[in-house]
Amino acid sequence: MFKENLKMSWMNLIHNKMRSFLTMLGIVIGVASIIALITIVKGAMNGMTSEFSSFGADKISVQAMGTPLKQGLIDSDIQKLAEIEDVAGVSPTLSGNTTVVYKGNEKTDVSVQGKNDVYFSKNKDLVETGRGLTILDIENKNNVCLIGANIANELFWGEDPVGKKLLISGVTYTVVGTLEKSNSFSDSSNNDAVIIPYTTSMSILSTGYISSVDVYMGDSNHSEKITADIEAVLKQAFNYKGNSFTVMNMQDMLASFNRMTTMLSLMLGGIASISLIVGGIGIMNMMLVSVTERTTEIGLRKALGAEPKRIQQQFLLEAVFLSLFGGAIGFLLGALIAWGVCALIGANFALSTATVLLALGFSAAIGIIFGIAPARKASRLNPIDALRSV
User: Fold this and answer.
1) Are 346 and 50 in contact (CB under 8 A)?
2) 3-state DSSP call for residue 59?
3) Is residue 273 within 8 Å of 257, Cβ to Cβ?
4) Do 312 and 53 form a contact (C-beta atoms < 8 A)?
5) Three-state SS at 116
6) Nearest to residue 42, comparing CAs of 363, 263, 362?
7) Which of 164, 34, 155 is closest to 104 using CA atoms?
8) Quick one: average pLDDT of 46-52?
9) Of 81, 179, 189, 375, which residue is least crowded by CB atoms under 10 Å?
């Protein structure tokens, strides 16, 4: 009986192709919108999350504004931060702009950054050729440097920079390595940067204080405790003066970012679902018209002994057919749109199973919900009244 109803429902839809297509158009638009919007947003957000993570999910950043008496951190403060439990390393940063010269060729407005060996041990893919800074470079205040890709190309064109001498603010440095060229946001500044030991950079930048520090966690599960311990050290360092420092836990920021992306996806899905509801109303309207048009057919079937539940099942199947076909077309259309947009904006195209199930499941549910009323109306028709309409 069920197979027969399936066949009859299918044949009825085939005989009214144009009307069936126009009826399912709302479902097509709704499902396509859900698939496209959620996939595009997820692809873009995944890229941003990945980029965000590259800053270091295992890292806590400290900005020291200081006080009138102490304008930043000193080596003893860095040492105290390094001694905190579950801290794997501390990397101070000093930065400024300067001029570099090689064989009379000058490059101005170059970013000079003071780093230590921890920075390179935690960013192992940073060095393209040569080596990074070592603990001996830091302790001995060696005049060594690593140069960014743009500086290597402009000043050392056709030469291997490693081992060459470079003037930085009038002081001779030995190039010990070059930095990996990267287009990513996190490393883009290194393309035009010179990195030297932070102990050496203090003289170039004429400062005795460190204003920026990255604290690497040994176990990021203890980030809250480590953050509290860092704040305790900094409060003591700045004599408990307010607004003298900020501590930014990247893991907390990443979690907040993920919550925002989830909320945004749900909101877009909810907006697109309105199209599905409109499509469901269209299906109900079409099915009600179909019941009116086929009153004679229903009367004849009932007069020949067809049970009301069989009539109801047939009309309900037609509504579900319309909804599911619309959902399938919408899925293909939405996936195609998402793929095109992701390729255009450079985002990852990742169609999740949950998104597909949500869209198709919702479209099937719409077919059932909005198909019940016409199906019940058809099943409750009096066969005598129905036959009078002949």
Assistant:
1) no
2) strand
3) no
4) no
5) coil
6) 263
7) 155
8) 70
9) 189
